[in-house]
Write a structure and sequence with these properties.
Number of helices of chain A: 15
Number of strands of chain A: 4
CATH topology of the largest domain in chain B: Rossmann fold
CATH class of the largest domain in chain B: Alpha Beta
Largest interface: A-B, 35 and 51 residues
Radius of gyration of chain B: 25 Å
Mean pLDDT of chain A: 86
Mean pLDDT of chain B: 85
CATH architecture of chain A: Orthogonal Bundle
Distance between the termini of chain B: 42 Å
Strand content of chain A: under 5%
Strand order of the largest sheet of chain A: 1-4
CATH architecture of the largest domain in chain B: 3-Layer(aba) Sandwich
Number of domains of chain A: 1
Helix content of chain A: over 70%
Largest sheet of chain B: 6 strands, mixed
Structural class of chain A: mainly alpha
CATH superfamily of the largest domain in chain B: P-loop containing nucleotide triphosphate hydrolases
Strand content of chain B: 15-25%
Organism (chain B): Hoeflea halophila
Low-confidence stretches of chain B: 1-5
Number of strands of chain B: 20
Family (chain B): Belongs to the ABC transporter superfamily.
Pfam family, one (chain B): ABC_tran
CATH topology of chain A: ABC transporter involved in vitamin B12 uptake, BtuC
Low-confidence stretches of chain A: 1-7, 325-339
Oligomer: heterodimer
GO molecular function, one term (chain B): ATP hydrolysis activity
InterPro entries (chain B): AAA+_ATPase (IPR003593), ABC_carbohydrate_import_ATPase (IPR050107), ABC_transporter-like_ATP-bd (IPR003439), ABC_transporter-like_CS (IPR017871), P-loop_NTPase (IPR027417)
Strand order of the largest sheet of chain B: 6-7-8-3-9-10
Radius of gyration of chain A: 20 Å
Distance between the termini of chain A: 33 Å
């Protein structure tokens, strides 16, 4: 007996479907271009590439579990990165020795996470206390966060960090890329949070039926605030990874990641109406998307065509899901009484 | 039989309807003659709504034959049915509150005339004709939202007449009406019948409309269990046919003398909903609160649990003030609330049965770092499900797979696991089958025997009489009457409710 939501055997779960898809995309790309796709260099470069948007997808996942969404993740990531970058350039600078620069790096990371938490608190308050629809609240706040980042930088990139900063995004630990380790830890943490804690169960139940959560005396405002704060902090973590990999911070980095993060969460089986979502599904969806993306790169598909493909894929996946688990969705949207 | 069928306006034969394995209707024959008034009686879940949906073309039947207006209707949808003269007036009337009376009455007619331009004078004329037909005067230009309930119903009837209705189906027509308004409605029904318009009353409280009806049809569990001239039925025999048992339930045993006051409500008021609410609830007492639809009973129930913030007044439990307008404060003060609408307010339908119970006890079972002690939590929830005799083959299955009665017990289990001091039950047996209903009543009696204060809010008078020690009657947001549960009959209570 488990506390794991809907009961189904693994082979019939959406996660199993995703495993098949991920494997299929991998095999397909390997067959198309075996020497390039399967090369060690390509595999390593993929492992460095995906964690940044994968972490954004985790942020998207937890908000979608409540039936909400966070469109401000990229804005939060950039604002946090800009603040961290300003600390690192103004107070530390590129010449600084390793020892003291590590202290400043720690300080910059803490500041970035605080910015993420504060941004999440703003989003959560808009949703919980003012009752704004999350999609509009975070669309607006995302523009505000981006605007703040532009105001701080004048729109240009901030660069000139101590050498230690590059470590986060570009080094490997025991052969595993650091960003990948970071993503692994965050994904595991989110998985445990959602499945093993009282908070996680409240998030799922709130997503399944917000009104019933209110009637069951769940403190729904607190749940929403926490969810958006966690999403904000995940977004700022992604911002730090982006900053380290680019060795700079700018207000408009990663703008294509927003759609990608939404796509991954939906592809990962997270119910955009709330109440269902598993981190393992999101991880598998991330892998599929990275394989696909690298493959398209090697086939020299243009960036514009890629955005088009992402958009089509997002709609396609949602249509598929609505047929497969559609009954559940519509039963909640308008309960049918039989008598 | 076939001879009757020749002239009948509605002639259904052997109607069977199955939803995903559940048989909602099972071989039902049903006829309505022109100008005839028929009572369609049955408890919630008996299949009467399904039958109406089939006649009005909303649901397709699984087996059987439908004739409307003397023609076979192998294909039926709401448009065809309406064109044949079948009009349904739902309980909420489906009017446009922001439009005027005449616009509401003439709207459908004007649409179906397929003219591109809207003719205001024509619309007013249509509306006036319809009102004249039932002999009622209502200002044509008033917005519908400002009308009292009884007038809204009349507007709905006129809309049906304006669309050339030959059969008007009225869903729960009297639940929101006072006795005087019911009498006027009956007068109008008589006029309609003289005009050759047939009427079907759908209700679980039919005593009021028996006198204008020719025929009564009773459904139970999807089958027709009784049919006959209305003169052969009375309240008691209807209840017998609807429930399938002679059932004076055992009334509650007396509250032990000297029981202490559990809950105290002083001067609770909310603009537009209720005012001057004062009562005390003793340990082990079951307090019934009743009133017509719109009397403020549900708003009051929600206010007691903090879901509606009252403008003034106080609520005390065990002598301590409870912050109003905050369900979490109410919950921690020991108040539990089982809502009226299980499907939207009570349950997390897609989630497992065990989770639906455990959500009430997360604080108790979360250890260090907020991690849940899952096995203890599941064990406790399973224990409560067993105590309340929830029939579930698998407690990890989604709660939507359960029947209404079992679902209600899941909500009850959630609250009972929190050991509440006061439990508020709003419509505890709405949409549950007869057997479960009796079980829920016996659970209520057990709870009061354990010293829990129970508030039952319901418009089901036999239910209140079977469970409550005291009954408060509400009208227009005020408590107008207080009666001891064992001192009144159902008729007296109904009279006090609607006089």
């Amino acid at each position: 007996m488990t506390v794991q939501g809907q009961k189904m055997s693994f082979t019939r779960s959406p996660e199993f479907r995703l495993l098949i898809i991920a494997c299929a995309v991998f095999v397909f790309m390997s067959l198309l271009s075996p020497d390039r796709f399967l090369s060690g260099q390509n595999l390593t470069s993929m492992a460095f590439q995906f964690p940044e948007f994968a972490i954004l997808a985790l942020a998207m996942t937890i908000t979608m579990m409540t039936g909400g969404i966070d469109l401000s993740v990229v804005g939060v990531a950039n604002l946090s990165a800009v603040v961290a970058a300003l600390i690192l350039t103004q107070l530390a600078g590129p010449e600084m020795a390793t020892g003291p620069s590590l202290i400043w790096l720690g300080f910059a990371v803490a500041a970035a996470l605080c910015i993420g938490a504060a941004a999440g608190l703003v989003n959560g308050s808009l949703v919980a206390f003012f009752g704004l629809p999350p999609i509009l609240a975070t669309l607006g706040s995302g523009l505000v966060f981006t605007g703040l980042a532009i105001a701080m930088t004048g729109g240009s990139a901030v660069m000139g960090f101590p050498a230690t900063v590059a470590w986060i995004g570009n080094e490997s630990l025991l052969g595993v890329p650091v960003p990948l380790i970071l993503f692994g830890l965050l994904a595991l943490g989110l998985h445990l949070l959602l499945t093993k804690t009282a908070f996680g169960l409240r998030v799922t139940m709130y997503g399944a039926n917000p009104l019933a959560a209110l009637y069951a005396a769940v403190n729904i405002n607190r749940v929403l605030l926490k969810v958006y704060v966690i999403a904000g902090m995940l977004a700022s973590s992604a911002g730090l990874v982006i900053m380290s990999r680019a060795n700079s911070a700018k207000a408009d980095y990663g703008s294509s990641y927003l759609l990608l993060a939404v796509l991954i969460a939906v592809l990962g089986g997270v119910n955009p109406y709330g109440g269902y979502g598993r981190v393992i599904g999101v991880v598998l969806a991330v892998l599929s998307m990275q394989f696909l993306s690298s493959g398209l790169n090697m086939l020299q598909v243009s960036n514009f065509a890629r955005e088009l493909i992402w958009g089509v894929l997002l709609i396609f996946v949602m249509v598929i899901n609505s047929n497969a688990i559609g009954r559940g969705f519509f039963a909640r949207a308008k309960p049918t009484k039989s008598s | 039989m076939s001879d009757v069928g020749e002239h009948a306006f509605i002639d259904l034969a052997g109607i069977t309807k199955r939803y995903a394995g559940v048989t909602a209707l099972d071989g039902v024959d049903f006829t309505v003659q022109p100008g005839e008034a028929v009572c369609l009686a049955g408890e919630n879940g008996s299949g009467k709504s399904t039958l109406i949906k089939i006649i009005s073309g909303v649901e397709k039947l699984t087996e059987g034959r439908i004739r409307i207006g003397g023609k076979d209707r192998p294909v039926l949808n709401p448009r065809i049915s309406a064109a044949a003269g079948v009009m349904v007036i739902f309980q909420d009337f489906s009017l446009f509150p922001n439009l005027s009376v005449y616009e509401n009455i003439a709207f459908a007619t004007q649409l179906s005339a397929h003219r591109r331009l809207y003719e205001r004078d024509k619309a007013r004329e249509i509306a006036r004709e319809a009102l004249d037909r039932i002999g009622v005067k209502i200002d044509l230009d008033v917005r519908v939202e400002s009308l009292p309930v009884a007038h809204k119903q009349l507007v709905a009837i006129c809309r049906a007449l304006a669309s050339q209705a030959k059969l008007i189906i009225m869903d729960e027509p009297t639940t929101a009406l006072t006795e005087k308004e019911v009498r006027r409605l009956l007068g109008i029904i008589r006029r309609l019948k003289e005009d050759g318009v047939a009427v079907i009353f759908v209700s679980h409280k039919l005593a009021e409309v028996l006198e204008v009806s020719e025929k009564v049809v009773v459904l139970r569990n999807g089958k027709k269990v009784a049919e006959g001239p209305a003169s052969e039925f009375d309240t008691q025999s209807l209840a017998y046919h609807m429930t399938g048992r002679e059932m004076p339930e055992t009334p509650p045993s007396a509250v032990p003398a000297g029981a202490k006051t559990l809950m105290r409500v002083d001067n609770l008021a909310k603009q537009g909903s209720f005012a001057d609410i004062n009562f005390e609830l003793n340990a082990g007492e079951v307090l019934g609160i009743t009133g017509l639809l719109g009397s403020g009973r549900t708003s009051l129930a929600k206010a007691l649990f903090g879901l509606v913030a009252p403008d003034r007044g106080s609520i005390q439990v065990d002598g301590r003030d409870v912050a109003t307008g905050d369900p979490i404060a109410a919950c921690y003060a020991g108040i539990g609330y089982v809502p009226e609408d299980r499907l939207t307010e009570g349950l997390f339908l897609s989630q497992s049965i065990v989770r639906n119970v455990a959500i009430g006890r997360l604080d108790k079972h979360s250890g260090s770092g907020g991690f849940l002690k899952a096995s203890a939590m599941i064990e406790e929830a399973a224990g409560w499900l067993k105590r309340l005799k929830v029939k579930a083959p698998d407690i990890d299955a989604p709660v939507q797979s359960l029947s209404g009665g079992n679902q209600q017990r899941v909500v009850l289990a959630r609250w009972l696991s929190r050991a509440p001091r006061v439990l508020i039950l709003n419509g505890p047996s709405v949409g549950v089958d007869v057997g479960s209903k009796a079980d829920i009543h016996s659970i209520i009696r057990d709870l009061s025997a354990e010293g829990i204060g129970v508030i039952v809010i319901s418009d089901d008078l036999p239910e209140l009489l079977a469970t409550s020690h005291r009954i408060l009657v509400m009208r227009d947001g005020r408590v107008t009457d207080e009666v001891a549960g064992n001192s009144v009959t159902e008729e007296e209570l109904a009279h006090r409710l609607a006089s």
